[in-house]
Amino acid sequence: MPSTRAAFDRATLAFAIVLVAVTWLRIAILRVNGFELYFDEAQYWAWSRSFDWGYFSKPPLVAWVIAATTALFGDAEWAVRLGAPIGQAIAASALFALGRSMYGAWPGFWAGLGWLMLPGVFVSSGVISTDAVMLPFWALGMFALWRLTNTRAWAWAILLGVFVGVGTLAKYAMLYFFICAALAAWWVLPVREGLAKGRGIVAALTAAAIMAPNLVWNFQNGFATARHTASNARLDPGDLFNVDELIEFIGGQAGVIGPLLFLVLVWALWRAMGRTRSREDDFLLAFMLPALAFVTALSFLSRANANWVAVSYPAIVVWVTGLLFGSRGGRRLLVAATTVNLLLASAFAGVIALRPDLATQVKGVRETRGWAHAAREIAQRASAQPGDAPFTAVMVDDRALFFELNYYWRDAREGGAALPPLRMWRLHAEAGNSAEAVDPMRVEEGGRVLIVHMRGDYLPLIAADFTVFRRADHLSIPLGGDYARELDISVGEGFAPVARDEAFEERLRGRNER
User: Fold this and answer.
1) Which of 49, 196, 333, 469 lies 20 to 30 A from 35 at CA?
2) Torsion angles phi and psi, residue 144, rounded to 5
């Protein structure tokens, strides 16, 4: 193991200063950026209002984190997202510690800094997500396993189990850790020895004990979260072998870790083939390759989002840093890659701050705009008008709209506004999302319903579920530039949904095929 005495104190101090400065800046940006919540974030906020060991499509930790940050700082958007920059700061600290333990103090500094500067981490620090909550525990788990390898201390075995177990409560991708650890043990004798004599069993049992309540919750709820996770990777036999999806996925990796760092990674992987590798190389490759190989193949066979290999990024950053730091040219390349990533992040932030018209061209930016405006407009139409009977419910046909209204009506409801209950229309008999499962439209609330449509193709189907149905209004919510969110408003009376039986499903399939 490399000596760290010469630079340990300076490197640690330098990293601590950078970590605090970057994290403080990211929290400050959260407070002033004006971005409204993505619908996923609004959904997680809705879950955070009640404690549970699982939710419809995700394990519980992201909701718990939001419950903690909003309990301290209120329900503003920045407080909902506060766990993201804090989580990435923890991940960077763990990678600093791992890089320092493997390669020395200053490589550790550059590993931690490199993580903070990744374009994907820059974006992830501004959005509360399951990745932002899981990745700190993945990085801590890697560090704990490495320390267990070198010390054989039982405390590290217990901590390893804690980190893996808690990480799994954030996202099921954490289960890759078991595969990666097994591969590391196969390739690296000291890892096998560290897990021997019951230490690996204790770590596994500790993780299992932490995961058990979520497993019980899934059992009690028909394995809803597990089924949803599996459905994301479902293969379509009629649409296999997609070169365009593969190219898009690979290009996405360059966007997440930065173009120069991506090229270095490709070179490093090529260089590692057929060469004698160190135990550090094999350890980090074991935590990098399984997810990369599986999801890359999946992107070719079906589709895959760039972040589906997020668990590979911590090992990538530490491995590439360790390889480059060994030579003067490599250190220059490392500085250049980190600088490029910093410039990309700064340019993106500058465009958002100074040219919102250009930022609107980015779909992810548009998705954070216009929700509060839409909520106010719909609330105004949902209020009882003179001479009209009050609405018994507000029904929507899109889960994004459901959770955004639920969030942006919070202040009005707390202020005593007489808003009707918010309900989600079901297309199928079985709930397809959290809103349909928890707040479906109910017959007893169907006397007079304000209906908000985001999906125009559903409008005839919704009309068939009411005894009386009429189109009432149209809303065009400006999002900036030439973009707008188009919403149709209808009024339905006598909610009597058509039976969602096999005959209905057959008609629906025929309609979709036309």
Assistant:
1) 49
2) -65, -40
Q: Give the H or E element holding residue 491.
A: strand 483-495
Q: For 274, list phi and psi in degrees, rounded to 5.
A: 75, 5
65: left (phi over 0), alpha (psi -120 to 50) or beta: alpha
CA 473 to chain centroid: 35
Widest pairwise Cα distance in the chain: 83
Question: 2 to each of 5, 10, 100, 107, 322, how far by Cα in Å?
Answer: 9, 16, 9, 11, 11
What would the DSSP string read from start to end of 111-126?
Answer: HHHHHHH-HHHHHHTT
User: Taking the CB of residue 274, how many other CB atoms lie within 10 A of it?
Assistant: 7
Residues 458-500 pLDDT 10s: 999 999 999 999 999 999 999 988 899 999 999 999 999 999 9
Element counts in the chain: helices (H) and strands (E): 27, 5
Cα–Cα dist 252/257, whole Å: 9
Q: What is the pLDDT of residues 179-237, one digit of tens each?
A: 999 999 999 999 999 999 999 999 999 999 999 999 999 988 877 766 666 655 555 55
Q: Please give the sequence-ordered ranges of beta strands (E in DSSP) within 311-399, or none if there are none.
A: 393-396
Q: Are 379 and 489 in contact (CB under 8 A)?
A: no
Q: How confident is the model at residue 307 (pLDDT cuts 50, 70, 90)?
A: confident
Cβ proximity of 432 and 449 under 8 Å: no
DSSP 177-217: HHHHHHHHHHH-HHHHHHHTTTHHHHHHHHHHHHHHHHHHH
Does position 392 have pLDDT exceeding 80, yes or no?
Answer: yes
CA distances, 172 to each of 60, 106, 448, 462, 466 (Å)? 11, 33, 42, 35, 40
Structural domain boundaries in the chain? 8-358, 371-513
User: How many Cα atoms within 13 Å fall on the side-chain side of residue 18?
Assistant: 19
CB-facing half-sphere around the CA of 163: CA atoms within 13 A: 22
d(C-alpha 385, C-alpha 146), whole Å: 66
For residues 256 and 317, what is the distance between their CA atoms, to the nearest angstrom? 12
501 Cβ contact partners less than 8 Å away, ≥ 6 residues apart? 429
CB of 462 closer than 8 Å to CB of 434 = no
Structure tokens at 494: 């006598």
DSSP-derived 3-state class of residue 10? helix
CA distances 469 to 361, 452, 464, Å, are 37, 13, 8
d(CA 132, CA 196): 32
